[in-house]
Amino acid sequence: MSATADNQAMEAELDRQLVQGAQRIVTDAVGQRVDQRTMPVGRVPAGMSLVQFWRLDTPLDGVSTRYNDPLVQHLLQDMLSVRRLDPGALYALLTRIKTQLVAAYGPAQGGWMAAMLMSRCRQAIESPEDFPPLLTDDELREAFKTYDRLAKVFHYGDSLRQGALGEGTRRKVMQYGRSPVILKDMYTELTKGPAIPIAAMYYFIGYILSTGEKYNAARNLSYRDELNRRNLALP
């Protein structure tokens, strides 16, 4: 078979898998064995563009992009099926992205745009939780529960830090009947003396904990929004 015929066959198989998916058993993001054909085609939420969905809307100094052109929009649409592709079809998609964009916009601009699209494809494969609409229903539920727990862990950690800073805060927690037992136990130990007598360290720890809480809460909110969009009950 000639190189041209090989390329045509590869393109045809890619187009088939973009619609039907690859027929093989794989492990999903939560460790369950599933048929890859059942992986969802990502659905862009109302009010969000494909460029925003793939996080390509951040302006870059000195770099001109054409993400809203019809050619690029078609490729971004194809990318919504990326989790349904086997390795051969994924290679064909990445090749299509690079070939078409370089041909349309030249090696500089087209090459840069292609690199960005290809990196998003790899991100969707390696870290699908970064794109909630690409997750299966089961993956989405598990992601929601995981980041909800993480946000609470960081929140309690910050409560502990605040308790370490002030006796008044510790007293309130100790008197509140529903305070977690672990906080009461730790605060009891703290009454014996300061755990870390450096104010700057308290501030640094607090910054880390509050940042972690905000990050995980934001991720949890994105999963909740996607669950609601699919009319699925919150776990």
How is the biggest beta sheet arranged? 2 strands, antiparallel
**Helical segment tally?**
8
The residue fraction in helices comes out at 55-70%
Give, in spatial order, the strands making up the sheet with the most strands: 1-2
Give the N-to-C terminal Cα separation.
53 Å
Element order, helices and strands? HEEHHHHHHH
Shape: elongated
Mean pLDDT: 85
Instruction: Tell me the structural class.
Output: mainly alpha
The low-pLDDT segments are none
Proportion of beta-strand residues:
under 5%
Overall description:
The chain has 235 residues and is mostly helical. The chain has 2 domains: 1-130, no CATH class; 137-230, no CATH class. It is built from 8 helices and 2 strands. The protein has helices at residues 3-20, 50-53, 70-79, 87-126, 137-165, 167-175, 181-190, 199-229, and strands at residues 25-27, 33-35. Strands 1-2 form a two-stranded antiparallel ribbon. A hairpin with a 5-residue loop joins strand 1 (25-27) and strand 2. The longest helix has 40 residues, at 87-126.
Helices and strands in order, then pairings?
Elements: H1 3-20, E1 25-27, E2 33-35, H2 50-53, H3 70-79, H4 87-126, H5 137-165, H6 167-175, H7 181-190, H8 199-229
Antiparallel strand pairs: 1-2
Helix pairs in contact: 1-4, 3-4, 5-6, 5-7, 5-8
